[in-house]
Amino acid sequence: MQDWEWEVADPTRIDEFLSAYESGELSEDERFVLMETIIQSFEDLQRLEKHPDPDQRWQRVLVILDRNIDLHAHTVWYWSLLDAADFSDPEQQFWATPFVRAILARHRTRLEKPPT
């Protein structure tokens, strides 16, 4: 299974994933991977429901990303899709992209280049 953190994403388990992330029982590596799963779960949720407005749980995710930018810098860069040809074309970005770009913009001076 390649990229399992995205393959195991499941919109019906978002509450469970968030609870696990916020439990304080996970290592940084586990939280990093779980955040990828959480974001992909929201992507899947939006694709299934075709509902453009995020629910309250998405705001929790954005706060987590913002507060833990050092841990999730790579994640923020990845989901921001800064190499997209047309930033205004929703077909060239993830559903989460505009939200994550706002976090990147707040921290951009600290995160001059994408982490490797």
For the structure shown, list the relevant keywords:
mainly alpha, 0% strand, 116 residues, 6 helices, CdiI immunity protein domain-containing protein
Overview of this protein structure:
60% of the residues lie in helices and 0% in strands. It is an all-alpha fold and 116 residues long. The protein has one domain. The radius of gyration is 14 Å and the shape is globular. This is CdiI immunity protein domain-containing protein. It comes from Bradyrhizobium aeschynomenes.
First-last Cα distance:
23 Å
Helix % is: 55-70%
- The rounded Rg comes to 14 Å
Largest sheet geometry: none
Q: Helical segment tally?
A: 6
Q: Structural class of the helices, strands and pairings?
A: mainly alpha
Number of domain modules: 1
| Overall morphology | globular
Taken as a percent bin, the fraction of beta residues is under 5%
Protein name: CdiI immunity protein domain-containing protein
